[in-house]
Inverse folding.
């Protein structure tokens, strides 16, 4: 059984990925959020910063590219190769309308012939290639026409998030469609979507014995010890999870304080993590979380967060 950290743009940066690997020991692969190939063409190395920071430090890192034409995608893959990566992932799942409307991410799925051209070119780069894909852009059966194309190539693996692009990250994952189409892939299959607990993981694992690896995203922010729980088959206490969140938060905060200029940038970058951190503090510390998220200055924010962590670590078992 292999476990992967999912790419989450804006959250799973190099610092976060390092914390997860350190906390959990055996995470088999960690994926970078996508490098936008069109931006790379215009802005160059600036968009590679997060990946470059991990070079030589994160053996398990698989960098990801998002694009719509073979040439722009290959330019990024060539750069990954130059940086020493032997494997990369192509994003065919991003649901955001400005992306998908331009035949990128999940917007590629209704165009199997485009996917064919992209993969033909990508496989020439000379590194292992995997694909991360949804069931479709608008409908869950769109992937059916893509499968013969994916099966033409020697892909490292295919990671499936069983939603369509229109759903974004909401609504149910379509396990029935996943169970139907995943075994028809020639490549190894990785499952990604809504694994939030040890119990949920166990249930998916028994449903889909053919799955080779399991990817966890949002739940790794809510519980930075989730991989360990799964590996060791034992849930962590609330106190341990709160302590891991405190450590994760403090390392991210220190990094953002150093690298960003101005309080508003810092607040803008750290506060979204609370969408995920907050779960463990519910319901009794809800007001304290609210106070932190509403804080207007970095000083007030820090004071509120410190109070919250102190109370949680005092009172949680
Ligand atoms: C805010 C956000 C950003 C994401 N960014 C990426 C990304 O850059 N590349 C990618 O392949 N998937 C991205 N995803 C999708 C996740 O990798 C994952 O497939 C999805 O969230 C389902 O898994 P989860 O329920 O374990 O989070 C993103 C998801 C969210 C919520």
């Amino acid at each position: 059984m292999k476990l992967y950290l999912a790419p989450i743009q804006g959250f799973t940066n190099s610092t976060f990925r390092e914390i997860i690997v350190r906390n959990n020991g055996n995470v088999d692969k960690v994926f970078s959020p996508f490098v936008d190939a069109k931006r790379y063409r215009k802005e160059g190395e600036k968009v590679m910063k997060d990946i470059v920071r991990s070079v030589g430090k994160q053996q398990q890192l698989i960098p990801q590219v998002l694009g719509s034409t073979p040439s722009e995608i290959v330019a990024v893959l060539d750069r990954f190769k130059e940086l020493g990566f032997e494997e990369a992932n192509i994003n065919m799942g991003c649901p955001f309308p400005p992306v998908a409307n331009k035949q990128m991410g999940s917007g590629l799925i209704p165009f199997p012939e485009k996917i064919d051209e992209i993969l033909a070119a990508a496989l020439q780069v000379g590194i292992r290639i995997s694909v991360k894909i949804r069931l479709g852009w608008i409908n869950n059966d769109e992937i059916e026409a893509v499968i013969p194309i994916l099966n033409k190539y020697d892909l490292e693996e295919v990671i499936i998030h069983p939603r369509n692009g229109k759903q974004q990250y909401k609504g149910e994952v379509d396990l029935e469609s996943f169970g139907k189409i995943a075994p028809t892939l020639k490549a190894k299959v990785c499952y990604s979507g809504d694994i939030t607990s040890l119990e949920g993981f166990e249930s998916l694992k028994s449903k889909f014995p053919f799955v080779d690896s399991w990817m966890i995203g949002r739940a790794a922010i809510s519980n930075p010890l989730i991989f360990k729980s799964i590996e060791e088959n034992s849930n962590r206490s609330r106190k341990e999870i709160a302590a891991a969140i405190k450590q994760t938060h403090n390392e991210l905060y220190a990094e953002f304080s150093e690298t960003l200029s101005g309080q508003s940038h810092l607040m803008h970058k750290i506060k979204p993590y609370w969408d995920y951190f907050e779960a463990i503090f519910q319901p009794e510390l809800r007001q304290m979380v609210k106070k932190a998220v509403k804080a207007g200055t970095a000083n007030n924010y820090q004071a509120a967060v410190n109070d919250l962590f102190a109370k949680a670590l005092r009172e949680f078992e």
Q: What stands out?
A: The pocket of flavin mononucleotide is lined by residues 6-10, 33-34, 64, 91, 93, 132, 161, 169, 192-195, 216-219 (CB under 6 Å).
